[in-house]
Amino acid sequence: MKGLSHETGGWGPKTRVGVLFWESLVETVGLNLDREVSLIEERAEMTRQNVVVADTKSGINVAITMTVSNSSLFTKAVKKTRETQGGCINIPPKKVGGGARINAWVDSMRASSPTRVKSAASLSDQSSWMLRHPSALNMFEQIIEASKGKQIVMFLDYDGTLSPIVDDPDRAFMSDAMRTAVRELARYFPTAIVSGRCRDKVYNFVRLAELYYAGSHGMDIKGPAKGSKYKKETKAVLFQPASEFLPMIDEVYKALLEKTKSIPGASVEHNKFCLSVHYRCVDEKKWSMLAQQVRSVLQQYPKLRLTQGRKVLEIRPTIKWDKGKALEFLLESLGFGNCTDVFPVYIGDDRTDEDAFKILRDRGQGFGILVSKIPKDTSASYSLQEPLEVMDFLKRLVEWKQLSMRQAIQGKVCNCNLSKWIKDLVLCLNLLIMPKCSA
């Protein structure tokens, strides 16, 4: 993983350091302390979830490898290193200067690259991770056993889950086969799409009116127009907890378009209640410039926060709402809020889906499935490698439900036939023992 660099001055050649932090950092310029801490914690979370870099020279695995700059920003180095379980580092919530903050952003942007993480993960790491998060396809029978007697409710992310990750976010189309699988799924289970995308855009991709849709990371929720067949009330669901931020989001969108237009490959997506700055097609040498431009806009809007996904910077309101909250709201809307016999299943591939995975763990109901080919720290119980495996899993759920329904019908038919046979037998016996009438 590349980090800070300085090729001249007192440090001499690039010096590689594994776990090095600074106890004393310069006064912050720009964003307030809460947002500073948020950014540092964001970087720590990204590191904890995605990065295990092998130092081939020393043979020691470390979480972060940096090239330290001979800069006046860094006044004092701490000799003591701090590590968390799994060899990852907790970055202390200190103030940082503008340059350090940008470098932290760029480090996290690099860490979000699946190809980088994949190259750093060893086969032993993969095997160990798969033991903790086994394939949902391989564990299908156990999953069904756990759901017996309960109502399964399905929650699905879109990008990277129902459709492959693509360079152009406007062309993230789902296949016809996947659409058919989701349509069949919704015939038997309440189903919701939960995405960071604009709700209308996700609907245009999926085009299934019978689903619930939660766009903008759950800040824009709408149910089927005809109501839900799983709830007696037919009132349509529409929930938008961040409506007051719409004018601000529009302002920031226009500012980001202007600021990033000089960076080839960068694109800004308006997701109604949040914004996405995509850098998948941006030359890595330009990432620092992109981060600087985004920061220059955000420092004027303290009520907005920045998080990261897969090759995307996400900008959204600071309200306490996420995909986990959206999951709980949808369960309540479906009439399953306080039910003990509900079994929610959430499938997603992004860091923002972790909020939903954690909710399911805390509730002790259902489970999460992470879609990933690489080891990541996750609260999900199971894993699937790609959208094709997601489709296979959905199909198996439908097949299992169809089979169980046929068996239930056959059982009723058998019971009806047995009941009719017993009635006929009783009638015959009555005829045999009934005294004959005298002439």
Describe the structure in your own words.
This protein has 12 helices and 18 strands. The protein is of the alpha/beta class and 439 residues long. It folds into 3 domains: 16-120, no CATH class; 132-241 and 321-400, HAD superfamily/HAD-like (Rossmann fold, 3-Layer(aba) Sandwich); 244-317, Trehalose-6-phosphate phosphatase related protein, domain 2 (Alpha-Beta Plaits). Strand 9 (212-215) and strand 10 form a beta hairpin. Helix 1 (33-50) packs parallel to helix 2, helix 2 packs across helix 9 (287-298) and helix 8 (246-260) packs antiparallel against helix 9. The longest helix is centred in the C-terminal third of the chain and has 47 residues, at 387-433. Pfam families: Trehalose_PPase. This is Trehalose 6-phosphate phosphatase. InterPro entries: HAD-like_sf (IPR036412), HAD-SF_hydro_IIB (IPR006379), HAD_sf (IPR023214), OTSB-like (IPR044651), Trehalose_PPase (IPR003337).
Keywords:
439 residues, alpha/beta, Rossmann fold, Alpha-Beta Plaits, 3 domains, eight-stranded mixed beta sheet, 12 helices, 18 strands, 17% strand, disordered N terminus
